[in-house]
Amino acid sequence: MGRAKTMEESPPSPTSLIVNSPRRTVSLLRGRRQKHRVSDLDEKAAGAASSFATGFAEVHGPKPSEVYGFVGSITTVIASVIFIVWAYTPEPWLHYLGITYYPSKYWAIAIPSFLMVTVVLAMVFYMGLNFMVTPPPTSFNVMFDDYTRERSLTTSSVGEEQPIEPISDIGVNQINKLMFG
Q1: Which of 68, 95, 130, 135 could form a disulfide bond with 141, CB atoms 3.0-4.6 angstroms apart?
Q2: pLDDT value at position 146?
Q3: Which residues of the chain have pLDDT under 70?
């Protein structure tokens, strides 16, 4: 009897310690004290794999991108409210509330103006770069280049089913025919 009991308390076999994630490792190490059958662990792993998409947030919590987005949106709202209160509240009211250390009201107009000018200049710069990289209209690179794909004329069809044609370039003559008749 004593010998059989020590056999039951031996660590689980290596096949029962199949790990899918770091969290699974921790849960298996905690579960060594309990008696688990190998089939129970395999069923849990199969269930976790099948419900991965639906139960991911329940098991592992929200994704970091969602958390960063939430924190970023809350921070943006708070910063916007502070900025609007600072920009539109008269100085005597701020002094009455005990707020005496704040930037000049000049920056309430200057910072948004600088940001708008920066955005407009970035868009102009981006369009200028695109115009510089684009070949001139008289260049043959406008019509043909290293990545040009000719349309294949062979199509294999099975019965009434027509396969989707692979991506290809439309020739200039076909475009002119379609657009100008």
Answers
A1: 135
A2: 79
A3: 1-59, 154-158
Contact (CB, 8 A) for 156 and 163: yes
- The residues spanned by each domain of the chain are 2-60, 64-133
pLDDT in tens, 64-83: 889 999 999 999 999 999 99
| Per-residue model confidence (pLDDT) at position 141 | 77
User: How does DSSP assign the chain, residue by residue?
Assistant: -HHHHHHHTSPPPGGGG--SSHHHHHHHHHGGGS---HHHHHHHHHHHHHTHHHHHHHHH-S-HHHHHHHHHHHHHHHHHHHHHHHHHS-HHHHHHTT------THHHHHHHHHHHHHHHHHHHHHHHHHHHHSPPTTSGGGT--TT--PPP-----BTTB-PPPPP-PPPHHHHHHHHH-
Instruction: Give the integer Cα–Cα distance in Å for 54 and 33.
Output: 30
Q: What is the pLDDT of residues 1-15, one digit of tens each?
A: 455 544 555 555 555
Cα–Cα nearest to 41, from 58, 60, 20 = 20
